[in-house]
């Protein structure tokens, strides 16, 4: 016998030990007495938490569970459903794509509600799940009061004077907080963690619960360093403080969460992107520092060698086409793309980005944050962007065949498109697009440049000293010093300025390939990436990542160990 959906949901609740059979029977008996929804009785009786029930529903119905407070709901869109209907069924419209309307519902099993809205709006309904309280708050915030209600309120007004106070979004001034002696210890501790990270130039702060303590690590110049440990008893308070700062749900401990906050320190504002991941001993939090000062430094200040920089700059001058930057996570791809986009950001250009998530918020640029849970994917977002008459499009990452196909066609129809891919080298980006299902002739016609990027630590200038490297070691990596010539090599001895690492700051090294007519012919004939790479190095003079790194080593900018660490042998 096929089980009904209601029976399946009850079975999941029992199997997950969210409710006992005895308690369930009590709720069923109560339902027979008073009628009404079984789920509502379970929640009101305190037998099941509303959030737990929503999670079970989402899993069984394959319907996404969302937190409405994190959505900026269009008030005009909301009015597609009359307020009376919305309150009656406890639901609210949150987005519309074509003829499909996404509706947040506290009871996704209410088929009558979905049918009524379908008839009322003439649109197909895509339900998503939200808690009853979230929906009620959204309804109250989104539907304006009727004129008759305003008149009624005016008659009851007491005449008390009300002064409007401007409230800005929360910004945490660490310098000011440090001077205030009356702050709670946990607030001071979190401020210390963030302040120390900024002083040490950390790009990421890792807050990691362990069995007996809370470990704090900073990623400085791409490498993680243990900083200190916090007693386990303070763990929950520290995590709660960071969640409050990021406007996250402090009661949610079983699902990943993403947020952000902004601080001001030493007259500089820094955004932090926050990721919370449930792990064995609690919630691991990673804070990514996003300093807007990095965006305006320009391509020539990123450390590229003259030849790859020339290839890059010539590609940017083209009126349309696609430029791809490849590399692993943390290789500086986004910073490079933002540097280009910031340079192109003039009143004459309509620049639109689509990202997951938006990393830097830049004035003058339209930025779209993808939300797959409501259908706003890279592909769907990109289709809408093309109807906004863009001149320049930046796609955070090409992840699937549909996004790749739309991006390529956009580059062919007059837009300058920038994006990233995860491949090991530059020429691998071309074959990756073809593997995604894009026709080779379309790739050949649209792509104008591909580049592979890595970030390389620089020798600390404060403790830089000359040292000897055995000739055999140099020859093994292809460095030949002419007989009788003395070439000095350098490394960092380690000092207080670089925290005893010998390195201070990073530069980008780039492997850049201009897509010439010869390479276009090779792409169209489905030549392998190795053949394209061989042609680019032998005929066009392209330097590989390792070659660029070794040039920086010979120039005394970095060390041989660092070059070998971040590049692979060809």
From TrEMBL:
The Bacterial type II secretion system protein E domain, residue ranges: 386-400
Pfam families, alphabetized: MshEN, T2SSE
Keyword field: ATP-binding, Nucleotide-binding
InterPro entries: AAA+_ATPase, P-loop_NTPase, T2SS/T4SS_dom, T2SS_E_N_sf, T2SS_GspE_N
PROSITE patterns attached to this UniProt entry: T2SP_E
GO cellular component: plasma membrane
GO molecular function, one term: ATP binding
Keyword ATP-binding belongs to the record: yes
Protein family: Belongs to the GSP E family.
Protein name per UniProt: Secretion system protein E
